[in-house]
Amino acid sequence: MKKVLNNKVLLGSLAGVALVAAALVGYRAFGWGAMGPVNSLKLDLSRPDALVRTKSLSALPRDLLTVPLARDVLREDFLFYYEQSEDRLGLKGSLRRIAYEHELGWGDQLLRMVLDQPAEVALWRDADGSLKHFAIAVSRSQLTRLLEEAGKIALKDTQMRVAGSLRVDGDSVPVYALNYAWQRTLLFAAHGQRLVILSHPGMLYGGDGKHGDGTAEKTVASLLAPEPAKQNVFHAQFHLDNAAPEGHSIAVKADFLSFGYQPFFGALEALRFDFQQGAWQSKVLLNADKLKNGGYDSSSLWPQLPHHPSACFSVPVDWTALQPVLKRLGDKTSAPVVSLAGHLQGPAAACWYGTSRLHTPVFVATRSAQAGDDAVYGSLFEAAIGGKDPVRKTTGKDSKGAFVRWERSVATALGQSKPALAVAGNTVVFSADGKLVDQVLAVRRKQAPAASDLLPDASRTIGLIAPASLARLIQLEAFDTLPANKEPVLRAAANEHLVPRLNALKKYPPLRMVLKRQPASGTAWETLEWQETGR
């Protein structure tokens, strides 16, 4: 009998690791002028990629470890690391030094003021795609003395100075820069009972440290405003109410999680992980108005997919978003391929299997019965897949009807690859590993079991994870990039630290992610449920 797991945020624990790391201690920052204006990296301070709302930042790592999976995989050294990290110790040491030299009493209190209080942490990705930049906003009633002393210190201390000022509610608010370690500087400003900390000066100023970013200044001024409506400047874009969370709430935009591919499935806007009453819960933000042509019903996909994937997810694709891509590819073909955007419908699935590699998932989609000529797919495949070898076309027929398969050998940095595309009935399947395409065709012919064989409700299932198989796949990829004769030190470190975590992951049963319901209209947060599946 299937049961709902207590660790409903399997993905939440993984995403939360990165979020907590950024929120508590930050990442290694460049020097004041080392990276130039952050705007050159297209950082928009008014639109963060993730938002953490919490009753206590210092409690967040500990509460993450209440998830059995996180506790077994991360262990307690995760908590020890972030409490004793170089950034946090450097900041703590700087504050103690300033407090001692200037005879102040808030050396450690300032850090506790931020970490032990209700707070909001907004995070932005850097040019490398990681969540490197953050802003922490807290409300405290004991900031007046702090501001007076900070102003005096900034005039004569080597590590603290006035970086600029902001207009907040008609007042001029100084912005302080604190250099707390080698090439690490943060900004902070306070007004009334509000305190805002920025992880990098470039979030507010340009490379010269003087010219401010108007959008960023307006955002920080809103966070410092006395009115709660202005303080909650990020809530609307995450569709969050203004009520303070009972525990923790972590919302992450799908655009960040999908490495920028979210426009192709615009109906799925964000994921959220909430901790309250001692348990975590997962939610997904769906826009019902963008759920077209079958919505998020994945029941037609799972019967086409081979059983026991390492990981498999369906997403509600907006096929019309492919038109610009198909139009560009059409210039390289003898036949127009733009029409394919109208042929495909419903969600698509991306799946990884232990018999293949992480960089070669298989993609399965459904086309309409009036899809037209199969030759258009051949034109698309030839245009999209580079290489000098000719495309090999195979046709056949089985009890389910006719199928067409295209394959081309391509030399890559990882060796020879044989990507393949096939259409069979209403099913379209592609993979950089042609063997996975053949496995899907075998499932269609009833020559191999399907992923749906163990699903009691395929229509509401949007994800499958087999921790044991996924762990083996990760281990294979990790050690493949660390050959013993070239990377003995890193390979030894992976053996000591990575392998035990993966072995802990292997003990967990296969899981499925179930969407409890679809919104009827508008945009709303819907509950995700993690359930055990049959082995």
Structure, described:
The protein is of the alpha+beta class and 535 residues long. It is 29% helix and 28% strand. The protein is built from 16 helices and 22 strands. The protein has a 20-stranded antiparallel beta sheet, with helices on both faces. It has a two-stranded antiparallel sheet with strand order 16-17. β9 (268-276) and β10 (279-287) form a beta hairpin. The longest helix is centred in the C-terminal third of the chain and has 18 residues, at 488-505. The radius of gyration is 26 Å and the shape is elongated.
Question: How would you name the oligomeric state of the polypeptide chains in this document?
Answer: single chain
How many strand elements? 22
Q: Give the uncertain stretches in residue-range form.
A: 1-41, 78-86, 88-104
In helices, the fraction of residues equals 25-40%
Shape descriptor: elongated
Largest sheet: 20 strands, antiparallel
Number of helices: 16
SS content category: alpha+beta
Global mean pLDDT: 78
Calculate Rg over CA atoms.
Answer: 26 Å
Tell me the distance between the termini.
12 Å
* Fraction of residues in β-strands: 25-35%
Secondary-structure blueprint:
Elements: H1 10-25, E1 50-54, H2 60-64, H3 68-74, H4 77-83, H5 86-101, H6 107-115, E2 119-125, E3 131-139, H7 144-154, E4 160-168, E5 171-181, E6 184-191, E7 194-198, H8 214-224, H9 228-231, E8 248-253, H10 254-257, E9 268-276, E10 279-287, E11 311-315, H11 323-330, H12 340-343, E12 344-352, E13 362-367, H13 375-384, E14 392-398, E15 401-407, E16 410-412, E17 415-417, E18 420-424, E19 427-431, H14 434-444, E20 461-465, H15 467-480, H16 488-505, E21 511-515, E22 523-532
Helix pairs in contact: 3-16, 5-6, 15-16
